[in-house]
Amino acid sequence: MDANRTPSRPPRQTAAGAARAARELIELLEVLWERGRDLVPPAPVSASQLRVLYGLDHEEGMNLRTLGELLDAAPPSVSRLCDRLEALGLVRRLPSAHSRRELELHLTGRGKAYLRDLRARRQEALEEAIATMTPSDRRALLNGLTSFQDAVDDVGPAPWRKPSTGDARSA
C-alpha cells in the first residue's frame, strides 16, 4: 500500500456519508409519519405550520415578531401562517398583557391535542421499528442521536428544543 495514501473510510464514516445517511433517515421517517396519518384523521398542517405549533408549544404567548425571528420569515408570511392555523382552530391570538399594540399567540386545546396525538403516533411508529433492533444497536442509536443533538447545539441553538432534564445516554 502506498505510504502517502490514507486508507479510505467506509462512506458512512465520513461527514458527508453520515449526512447522507441522516437525510435518507429523515426521508424514511417522513414516509413512516405519512403511513401513520391513516390511523388518526390529521389536521391539514404544512411543515411550516407545524414549526409554528412546535414553537408555540415551547414558548406559549410569543408575539408575531418573535415567531418571525425564530422562523426567519417576513412578518406577512408569519401572519398568513397564523391566519391559517387560527382558521383550523389550532392557534388563537390574544391581546398582550404587556402592550396594547401587540398580540400574543397561544395554542388552543385542539392545537395541544393535535401535537400530543402527532407525537404519540410518531413515538409508537418509532418504538415499533426500534424494538426490532438489538440492544447494542439501540444503545448505538441513542448515543449517535445524542451526539448529533450536541453537535447541532454547538453550531447554534436549535429553536424550540426543550432542554433535557438529564443525560439521555443513561436511559
From TrEMBL:
Residues 18-150 form the HTH marR-type domain. Pfam families: MarR_2. Keywords: DNA-binding, Transcription, Transcription regulation. GO terms for biological process: response to stress. This is MarR-family transcriptional regulator. One of its GO terms (molecular function) is DNA-binding transcription factor activity. The keyword RNA-binding does not apply. The keyword Phosphoprotein does not apply.
